[in-house]
Amino acid sequence: MHEFSTAVGIVETITNVAKENKATRIKKVELVVGEFSMLNTEQLKFAFEIAAEGTLAEKADLIIEAQKGEIDCKDCGFKGPVETQKKDVDHFVVDLVNIFECPKCKSNNTKISGGRDIYVKNIEVELGTK
Ligand SMILES: [Zn+2]
């Protein structure tokens, strides 16, 4: 499951940062998830809860911010966001990876140029008292 390995990676990253900063607990995690990252955000939240168990990130609030997918059109040079076809609110359909239609010239000769990534934007921690 793609979401689970992603969640484990996120938990590792943030707990390392938290330890470096001598935090005792991670309270909140803000994630940016690209529309074309092929991740189901509901599954990702669930996987995060499991991956965070027993770590500093246990019970942290996970805030997911969606980043719009962008394309480059090889025919007219358009670069920018496209309307994606979604199966449901959270699950992006990415089997159609190469057939996003250019909103300007309607060409299908397009390439994905943005919105594929997932990264941690911010974390909020509780610091231990000394
Ligand atoms: Zn175009």
Provide an overview of this structure.
- With about 130 residues, this protein is α+β, with helices and mostly antiparallel strands.
- The chain has two domains: about 1-70 and about 115-130, 2-Layer Sandwich (hypothetical protein PF0899 fold); about 70-115, Rubrerythrin, domain 2 (Single Sheet), CATH 2.20.28.
- Helices cover about 25% and strands about 30% of the residues.
- It has helices at about 1-20, 40-50; strands spanning about 25-35, 60-65, 70-75, 80, 110-115, 120-125.
- The strands form two sheets. It has a three-stranded mixed sheet. It has a three-stranded antiparallel sheet with strand order 4-3-5, with no helix packed on it.
- A hairpin with a 5-residue loop joins strand 3 and strand 4 (about 80).
- Helix 1 (about 1-20) crosses helix 2.
- The longest helix has 19 residues, at about 1-20.
- The chain is elongated, with a radius of gyration of 18 Å.
- The chain starts with a helix and ends with a strand.
- The relative contact order is 0.26.
- Mean pLDDT is about 85; it is low at about 85-95.
- It binds zinc ion (ZN).
- Zinc ion (ZN) binds near residues 75, 76, 78, 102 and 107.
